[in-house]
Design a protein that fits this description.
10 strands, 12% strand, 13 helices, Spore Coat Polysaccharide Biosynthesis Protein SpsA, Chain A, alpha/beta
Length: 378
């Protein structure tokens, strides 16, 4: 009873202490996790080995994207044996004829035509599984039909990270830079997500990758029985599979600009919201330690600004500003360095606006964690 009286009698300090605790959690994530990405240095490899590579792309009614982006994959500067497999998944557009024409000019292009839907397996896991099973080589490199390599050295650079222990390489799937604030907002979310999954991987707690730019060994796929354990979800062919297969020893990241892919970001709020909701429906299936770490970060991020305003109003404003300033300096430093490394430095001048926006972002997308995923991948 006395504790309750003390708390209610001195509630202003409680608000400040709560704000300080939330800020401390945020600082911990920036210094323990995200700073790893800012300070990360790729180890120089003497006499790097080259591996035979199978690039796998799934497409459904994506003739326009294939026409625009597939040549960027086919003209890669990679002299070692490789193949590009396109799984044409029940397309009704001109994809079949476009791919047939491209095959005449590019011998490394192989096409797998699917003419029947897989029952009870939503999403693109079935066509992707077919493509992987059709692959001739151990190193798989996955991307999407709406993605194009940022350079002609994408295959070379992604496969160069492999050594005897490495089984998974997580790459960066960026979005094209377009005029307008909405494009920056979409790119900020992708950057913010990459900041987390790259940093966690460097902390030897890998939890996801993105299908726009992801590589792993074919033997890993078969060792985990493909997507059998996650076939009930429409999404998850990238993040859930990595969540299941990645360990502290077998996973590496690649943030060399030559390894990036680029794709068109969502152009409307409705399209972007649909994409993000589909992605977040898989979050409930992450391992417990990943859900805890991601949840604690998101919760502290969500509470930070309301707690700051409350501490500013109801307690000593100079103390609240001091705590805010410490977190801001640490955050700005890490964001500045990492945004340069991921070629997103034009986002840095807006990072404070985007950081405040994340409060609304969590309100909008958190309910997706509890929704049933959509049954299709297109």
């Amino acid at each position: 009873m006395r504790i309750f009286e003390l708390l209610t009698g001195h509630w202003q300090p409680v608000i400040f202490y709560a704000f300080a605790a939330v800020a401390l959690i945020q600082v911990f994530y920036y210094l323990f996790f995200f700073l790893r990405l800012a300070l990360y240095k790729e180890k120089a490899v003497n006499n790097p080995r080259t591996h035979a590579v199978s690039v796998v792309i799934c497409a459904r009614d994506e003739a326009d994207n294939l026409m625009k982006n597939l040549p960027g994959v086919l003209v890669q500067h990679y002299k070692t044996t490789h193949e590009v497999i396109v799984v044409n998944d029940n397309s009704y557009d001109e994809s079949k004829y476009l791919l047939e024409e491209l095959q005449k000019s590019f011998r490394q292009l192989r096409v797998v035509e699917l003419t029947q839907e897989a029952k009870m397996i939503p999403g693109k896991k079935f066509p992707l599984g077919v493509g992987i099973k059709s692959a001739k080589h151990e190193i798989l490199l996955l991307t999407d039909a709406d993605c194009v390599p940022a350079t002609e050295n994408w295959i070379e650079n992604m496969q160069s990270v492999y050594n005897d222990e490495t089984e998974i390489v997580i790459g960066y799937g960026a979005f094209h830079k377009k005029p307008g604030f909405f494009n920056k907002l979409v790119r900020w979310e992708a950057f913010h997500s990459a900041l987390q999954y790259f940093s966690y991987a460097l902390a030897r707690i890998p939890y996801m990758g993105v299908g726009r730019n992801l590589s792993y060994k074919r033997s890993v796929f078969f060792r985990h029985k493909g997507f059998a354990s996650i076939n009930h979800t429409a999404s998850g062919d990238d993040d859930l599979f990595i969540n299941m297969a990645a360990t502290k020893k077998n996973c590496k990241i690649n943030i060399n600009p030559n390894s990036f892919t680029l794709s068109e970001g969502a152009r409307t709020w409705k399209q972007w919201r649909k994409q993000k909701q589909r992605h977040y429906t898989t979050g409930r299936y992450y391992k417990g330690k990943h859900k805890f770490l991601l949840g604690l970060y998101s919760l502290s991020h969500f509470l930070f600004y309301p707690a700051f305003v409350a501490a500013l109003i109801f307690y000593k404003w100079e103390w609240a500003l001091a705590v805010f300033g410490c977190r801001f300096i640490i955050q700005a430093t890490v964001i500045y360095i990492t945004s340069k490394r991921l070629n997103e430095k034009d986002l840095f001048p807006f990072f404070f606006i985007f950081d405040v926006w994340m409060f609304i972002y969590y309100l909008v997308f958190a309910p997706a964690l509890f929704k049933k995923p959509a049954p299709t991948w297109k």
